[in-house]
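Section 3.1: Structural characterization of target chains.
Under the original work plan, the team committed to producing a structural model for every single-chain target entering the pipeline before any wet-lab resources were allocated. The record below documents one such target. The sequence was received from the expression subgroup and is listed exactly as submitted; it comprises 80 residues.
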Amino acid sequence: MEEAIMAKKLISPTEISKIYSISYQTVNYYTNLGILMVKKRIANNRLYEARQVSACLKKVTDLKSQGYSLKLICDLLRKG
């Protein structure tokens, strides 16, 4: 299913929640922290680049499993 979404290129917060089994609130929180970047806005809807979301959430999951705090993860992701 993830490959089908990747082909769409842009996905909504609701789709992110369903695909990655995280809450809508977590998507909002990660957006506010700068972990997830909004690619495009249409009216009041945010859209994210599917590949960027996948890569970011994989990094977050990997770093969390290694014991890093979310604040440190944010700092690491911002630095690239």
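The beta strands are 10-11, 38-42, 45-49.
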